[in-house]
Write a structure and sequence with these properties.
single chain, 328 residues, alpha/beta, Peroxisomal Thiolase, Chain A, domain 1, 2 domains, five-stranded mixed sheet, 10 helices, 33% helix, globular, FabH, Beta-ketoacyl-[acyl-carrier-protein] synthase III, fatty acid biosynthesis, transferase
Length: 328
Amino acid sequence: MTSLRTARAAAGARLLGLGSTQPENVVTNDDLAQRMDTNDQWIRERVGIQSRRIAEEGTLLVDMAAEAGSRAVKDSGLAPTEIDTVIVATCTMPNGIPNAAAQTAERIGIPAPGAFDLNAACAGFCYGMGTGADLVRAGSARNVLVIGAEKLSDWIDWTDRSTAIIFADGAGAAVLGPAADEASVGVGPLAWGSAGDMAQTIRVNPDTNALYQEGQAVFRWATTKIAPIALKAIELAGVTPADIDVFVPHQANLRIVEAVAKRLRASGARDDMVVADDIVHSGNTSSASIPLALDHMRAAGRVRSGDTVLLVGFGAGLSYAGQVVVCP
């Protein structure tokens, strides 16, 4: 029987760099109140958002993906030529073909990488991180660029206040590379899953081609089901809730974020655990929300190099995933 060679495995993966970008156009709650039946207080009380960023019509999703990816590669200290795999997590490309990843890689100057898109909606970045880390660990890739990028404004009915007040545009990225040994592994195993029986709670309306969601059903599900996933990710990483310095969940709704953080603290997380609240000024950017929040927190000094960070994504599908990482 023929014996085949396998790739040389690594001990695991670690985070090397972060980057993000948002459109310059800020849309406040008062701006939306001029277009629909809503007001600043109503929006803040329900989802916690004060403002969000919306891209200009001519801005492409791959424009934002390339900008965030370029910044992450620069932050990692690597040259674009040292990246061999590009993963773009997105659910808002205008068409399925061509994919975003190959176009994004070409714009950054990454020559001939493995490049593919991944659609797990708001859980997409965590799915991408898990996939990228496993590729590095298996030896199938060395340096992986993972990008979460969304232009949700292309998929919104701007007369529907149930969605128009929530969603926004942006991109965030991370670079993964091999850990030298087990002691330097910086990306924990992925705790993931799905609830296909609730798939219709977040969907695209075929008549309007606009995003639709059953907000209350998603809220009830997220506030009860996400904390156990977060705790499972902590367990798989071999740490305890008390070891978590920073919690960065998908920025879906500030009330969901606060409810999950409360349950984690009841399970042993520290009172001083820093919790991301990027949704207040960024809105819900789906797969981009976690890397955007993490990069913004690092820039503000709320997360530091070496901090133990819990990431948890959840959304349409319904799909969810969580993992523990060490901040670069």
